[in-house]
């Protein structure tokens, strides 16, 4: 009660920490961090293990094994979340995964060097180019070839959920001149003759086949191959996927292959083109 005899009104600062934690359980990680700055109750609740464990995927212990020097028993759940939200490299730096802060699902990227590309070792056809436009700082650039095929595999314990698989491609060779991005289209040819074919299959019988023409030079585009369901967080699922245009009646060239990306369904950070089934 105030000196005047009036009853003081309760505010957010008077909220019990346990009640604050119950509120945080219904929010995503970015909102939890914002509320932690509000007052002492939310700050304390935002450090609670049981709050962050709800935001972690069920198999976070397995995922943490990919992180050098990380021991689950020595880390709080908030610290585990923060570490998995950063890119975790594996396979000699050719692959990486990270935790989507908003949805709690796993994203994965495979560099062009993790893929089997027809003719990649012959500089008459392909060149590995350094670039700041790739998360791996390198892309495979196709100068000219008759038989175009890119194949890859993933064998991983994805947290249960639905995921989308994409190829990240770019028509034309981009560079920077006088601080401005420019794109050379001199070697682009052959993609208007026949569509490219995308496909994937999984170890539990899921599959998808689609195709489309590559006809938009100058921009990085995610070409959607299809969606798959990981039914168990504890069992690995094996994916095989490919991109091909193997009509040998004409050559094709001027294409950059950056990576293959796997995102929780609905997460699309770049422009997406959905191929026709």
UniProtKB/TrEMBL annotation:
Source organism superkingdom: Eukaryota
F-box domain: residues covered: 9-55
Pfam families noted in UniProt: PP2
Protein name listed in UniProt: F-box domain-containing protein
Source organism of the structure: Urochloa decumbens
